[in-house]
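pasting for the record
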Amino acid sequence: MKSVLRQASGLLAVMLLAATVPATGFAAGPSDTAPVLFNAPEMASLIGDGARYPMFAKELQRTRKEVDAAMRAGIDVPVPKDPGGGRTHEQHKRNYTTLYGAGLLYRATGDKAYADYARRMLLAYAKLYPTLGQHPAAKNEAGGRLFWQSLNDAVWLVYSVQGYDAIRDTLSAEDRKTIDDGVFRPMAKFLSDDQPQVFDIIHNHATWACAAVGMTGYVLRDPAMVEKALKGTDLSGKAGFLRQIDLLFSPDGYYTEGPYYQRYALQPFVVFAHAIDANDPGRKIFAYRDGVLLKAIRASVQLTYDGYFFPFNDAMPDKSLRTDELYQAVAIGYGVTRDPSFLSIAKWQGRTTLTPEGIEVARDVAAGKAQPFPYASMLLRDGPDGDQGALAIMRSGPGDTDQVLVVKNTAQGMGHGHFDKLNWILYDNGHPIVTDYGAARFLNIEAKDGGRYLTENQTWAKQTIAHNTLVVNEASHFDGKVKLASTLAPKQVFFADAGVTKISTAQMVGAYPGVAFRRSLAQLEIDGLAAPLVVDLMRVHGDKPAQYDLPLHFAGQIIDAGFPLKSNLAERPVLGKAAGYQHLWVDAVGTPDAANARLTWINDNRFYTYRMLPPAGASVILAESGANDPLFNLRREPVLIERVKSAGDTTFVAVLEPHGAYDPSAETTKGSTSRVKALRHERTADADLVSIDLVDGRTVSLAVADDADAAREHRATIDGRAVSWKGHFGRFDTPAAGAGARP
């Protein structure tokens, strides 16, 4: 779906209607063929005005170039054969973007050549589609007809019905009936009545299908089709578009499958919602659930670093706000809210849409009305009621190179979820530093299993060892079973997002029988340090002896290890046999102590030191992904694994410190050694104390209480000094000898 025309997808269909809208939900007017998904006169009048604004003019030029090239190539509607990435797959994708673009250009320019091209292509589909059965490359019950999965068929319909709507009033009655009955009615029936197992589930595949069927219903003047899209095949409201909104978003606008799929699912949500708003404004769809769809647009932007989505769950790490779904969402969001911060996102994207909303974006960007998007630390709750954990985002600032600590304490995320409760990632200095693998997939690259999710997505990417969280006895959380994982979510115990100390605490019970673990991750700003320190405190309670592994996946070149390592030079053993361990080569093993348990690496021009306080008897494994991968499907990435065999209860403590700078041009290095001298931990009756001793004599101590009662007072002693605090945490900074203490 990389065609430049997709940026305009869906929005043509949802342009504002100038006419009044009757209670039936269909635009008033004398003709049953005039466009119902957009206001054609408004579009025609705005195009001339919009061409004055550079962003819009470029979009029009881009669309012309794409559609004109397709027209020169001629009509190509092949019999479906290939999976994702194959020739027929890609041709049908090009066709739906071209159909949409041709309809758009006809309305924008009045050139009937575009309408005629769309007509001829749709007649070719009307001849082909009735002959099709299940796609030959389909692999499951959700197989499509034009594509290997019906999801792609739904996407085709979302785009194509909008292009059809744009040119439908130019057709003869005979051609209109041929296309209605040969393409759009049977496709809508296939996606709904013939596949209720997809249409009536709560999932992004169903969202696309509902949007496709509902928009087709508007175009074909079929109220029953629209109601089915809104309420499910049995019209009970237990499924359908409205129920999707109810169950897939949290009250904060977080989408259950994670940031990557929030990006993808956002398109059918906002496009169909805008069509509903145009045809049935009485529903007040953008106010539904306290405006959750508008919250979802804003949350999608917040779920990025330097514009790239946090790669949790099944995610491609290269997806950014420069994507068709977000071009549309930003334009729609701005059209509904007039929020000037959306304009700054459009400027970053460098794109808008060929719609009235797109013209408004381009016009107001050109007028200098953009304001910075308010990137901020925040807690995005998960679950329909916001009680199924959360995603905690801690930002040291709003800039593209400021540090961002993200803690994944969310629910499973259905089939696209990974088994990694209380996982975390870190961005700093413009780069991912503590990383998440995301999905094992080469999207739409035919040679890699037709672009589908690879076997290694199950055997590696979803497994817990592929993430930065606790692994017990070399088994993944919930033993890698989605149904079980979907019944249990972490508890977000506490979150603080203000000041020089930001902290998230969450607890997971049930990921392993008899095991509970609680994790606090804090971002500490300290005077004189280049970037905040990250403190990681994990307490594990188990009812029997077990092996605990705590991996840290990082990006960079190892510079120095503070402890002796036994390296595997002559051979490269594999760490384990299953649950992802079979994909790890062991490069070296060491047994550190409290004084030397550190590893330093470099990423770009900054150094990072990870300092641990290892439990008694712990070892450290340095490994790399890629073992047992004969087809080279996995990226080769380093990981540090802290391992301890415990009687049951264990505490892991670590601090990650960014420091120093390397200038390859000047060939200079400064601050390449850690400014942390020592790391200490003490357990009191009701709290944990983590103290960080700096080389300049200062000490920064973080006290984390077991409870989150804001009124409860806690007391402890740090280096012989009595301290107290109220609430979940306290911070105590002790200056170097001779200076005054600061609480």
